[in-house]
Amino acid sequence: DSHVIPDNRFSATTIYDSRYHPYYARLNGSPGWCRSGSSTSEYLQIDLNAVFVVCAVATQGASYGTEWVTSYKVQFSMDNQAWSTYRETGTDKVFTGNTNRDKFVKNTLAVPAMARFIRFVPLTYYRDPTMRVEVYGTKPDGMLQPM
């Protein structure tokens, strides 16, 4: 939502159609990103362009229509090659998503993750897997900011 990250730093494995480009996935933006398939290996990826300590993520559904992601996983990478799924208590964390299209749901990470790249991997959804996202974190110097 803060537009600190340029549009070209958003990417995805697939898009539903030209109305759902990855860079439309900003929180409170329009209309959101939607994948084209049903595979849970598809994702929205953001290059933060620097290493951040990520402490929370937030999601919304589509800005119009009745579509939203109800659960998802988050993956992190320092180099865009080696990826780790965020884990809590020894298991992959499944984040609670949305129950409607407008209200955003913020999830705080119990253990902040250091990363340059982040992926949102939709697992379950209502109608279509459409999402808008925000990443919250700090630069290693400690300044908290939405990205």
From TrEMBL:
It comes from the Eukaryota. InterPro entries: FA58C, Galactose-bd-like_sf. SUPFAM superfamilies: Galactose-binding domain-like (SSF49785). Pfam families: F5_F8_type_C. Residues 1-138 form the F5/8 type C domain. Coiled coil: none annotated. Gene3D superfamilies: Galactose-binding domain-like (2.60.120.260). This is F5/8 type C domain-containing protein. It comes from Nematostella vectensis.
